Amino acid sequence: MANIQYYDVILKPVVTEKSMNAMADRKYTFLVHPEANKTMIKEAVEKMFPGTKVSRVNTMNSDGKTKRRGMTFGKTAKTKKAIVQLTEDSKEIEIFAGL
């Protein structure tokens, strides 16, 4: 496994209607590094957003889709999503505040 630092773990937030509705329950969705595990994701969120405390992390892997151009077949990149649940006494994540 590669040497992944905490700032390499979280790639970008996922902004969909379903993820915006989950923020009412203090759940935030991020696209993360495919080789990151749950403890790395928890550590990265707590370090990148000071004052947050993570209670649990759920992850899901998505395989790349098969794409075709003429006779040639290829695959898009694999992705990994993480849904991070914050504790009740935790601070909100600021990047989602204006959305």
Compose a concise summary of this entry.
By secondary structure, the chain is an alpha+beta fold.
Question: Overview of this structure, please?
Answer:
A hairpin with a 2-residue loop joins β4 (66-69) and β5 (72-75). The protein has three helices and six strands, in the order αβαβαββββ. The protein has helices at 6-9, 17-22, 38-48; strands spanning 10-13, 27-32, 54-62, 66-69, 72-75, 79-86. The radius of gyration is 15 Å and the shape is globular. By secondary structure, the protein is of the alpha+beta class. The model has no long low-confidence stretch (mean pLDDT 92). The chain has a four-stranded antiparallel sheet. Strands 4-5 form a two-stranded antiparallel ribbon. The protein is 21% helix and 35% strand. The chain has one domain: RRM (RNA recognition motif) domain (Alpha-Beta Plaits, 2-Layer Sandwich), CATH 3.30.70.
Alpha-beta classification: alpha+beta
CATH class: Alpha Beta
Helix content: 10-25%
- CATH topology descriptor: Alpha-Beta Plaits
Question: What is the molecular shape?
Answer: globular
Return Rg in Å: 15 Å
Percentage beta strand: 35-45%
What's the total helix number? 3
Major sheet, described briefly?
A: 4 strands, antiparallel
Q: Strand-and-helix sequence, N→C? A: HEHEHEEEE
How many strand units?
A: 6
Arrangement of strands in the largest sheet: 1-2-6-3
**CATH homologous superfamily label:** RRM (RNA recognition motif) domain
The count of domains is 1
Please report the distance between the alpha carbons of the first and last residues. Answer: 35 Å
